[in-house]
């Protein structure tokens, strides 16, 4: 089961139950780029759809999608899934003997709380691929600079030992085959800083830009597969706004 299957599954479940509702938000296309942190792999760029909208109780927030259930504070308790591209192939020269890392498939619960002081996003995911957990807490503010809307964001990501081991651990068998040292990972706590901008082109169309940096802790950087101390990612999107 892969990330594309998760997207289709959640979409079919939600849309079948919410066919009479109206879509509000942004839809379009985007170029996404992610700095690779593993030896012998470069930056990854891809062109994919961009979606940040609500459709009744169904929602998407770029890489997160789900269904809102019961009311909770200033938002809802949500059933959520995450589209992850953290996995990587290992057919590069520096990774011979290392098994390919499949993309995690985080599924769980979360909430989006909209307050007068900004928005709070909290998620707790289980990944069937690794048997590990991913927990996230993110604060996002919003302010105007002329016609541009600015969204600074600050967060923390916690990955359990099994989640990190699935991606960056090196088994004794892989160590023998590759010549790299064996590595047993521990849990990881990663601070995240992001900045998103939205420019209106006209009444319907928008340009969206986001930059995001993760500061990797020792649980990840001590892996012999990893060469970077931080990871940048972002996207540039052209979207149509639906109200």
Describe this structure in words.
A twelve-stranded antiparallel beta barrel has the order 1-2-3-4-5-6-7-8-10-11-12-13. The protein has 243 residues and is mainly beta. A hairpin with a 2-residue loop joins β2 (44-55) and β3 (58-61). The protein starts with a helix and ends with a strand. It is built from four helices and 13 strands. 26% of the residues are buried. It has a single domain (3-242), classed as Outer membrane phospholipase (ompla), Chain C (Beta Barrel), CATH 2.40.230.
What level of helicity do the residues show? 10-25%
Largest sheet, in brief, is: 12 strands, antiparallel, barrel
The separation of the N and C termini measures: 34 Å
Total helical elements: 4
- Extract low-pLDDT stretches: 1-20
**Average pLDDT level:** 91
Helix/strand order: HEEEEEEEEEEHHEEHE
Q: How are the strands of the largest sheet arranged? A: 1-2-3-4-5-6-7-8-10-11-12-13
Structural class: mainly beta
Got a strand count?
A: 13
| CATH topology annotation | Outer membrane phospholipase (ompla), Chain C
Envelope shape: globular
For the record, the count of structural domains works out to: 1
> What would CATH call the architecture?
Beta Barrel
What top-tier CATH class fits best? Mainly Beta
Report Rg. 19 Å
Quote the beta fraction.
over 45%
């Amino acid at each position: 089961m892969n990330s594309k299957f998760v997207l289709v599954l959640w979409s079919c479940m939600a849309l079948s139950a919410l066919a009479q509702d109206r879509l509000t938000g942004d839809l379009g296309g985007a170029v996404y780029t992610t700095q690779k942190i593993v030896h012998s792999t470069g930056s990854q760029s891809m062109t994919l759809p961009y979606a940040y909208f609500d459709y009744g109780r169904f929602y998407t927030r770029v890489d997160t999608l789900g269904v809102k259930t019961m009311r909770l504070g200033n938002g809802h308790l949500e059933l959520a899934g995450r589209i992850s591209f953290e996995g990587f192939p290992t057919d590069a020269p520096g990774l011979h003997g290392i098994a390919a890392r499949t993309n995690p498939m985080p599924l769980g619960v979360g909430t989006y709380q909209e307050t007068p002081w900004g928005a709070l996003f909290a998620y707790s995911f289980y990944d069937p691929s690794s048997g590990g957990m991913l927990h996230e807490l993110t604060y996002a503010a919003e302010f105007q600079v002329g016609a541009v809307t600015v969204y600074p964001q600050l967060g923390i990501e916690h990955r359990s030992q099994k989640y990190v081991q699935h991606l960056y651990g090196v088994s004794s068998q892989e160590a023998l085959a590759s010549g790299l040292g064996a590595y047993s990972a521990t849990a990881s706590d990663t601070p995240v800083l992001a900045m998103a901008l939205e420019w209106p082109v006209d009444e319907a169309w928008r340009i969206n830009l986001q930059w995001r940096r993760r500061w990797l802790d020792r649980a990840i950087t001590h892996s012999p597969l990893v060469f970077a101390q931080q990871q940048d990612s972002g996207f540039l999107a052209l979207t149509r706004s639906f109200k």
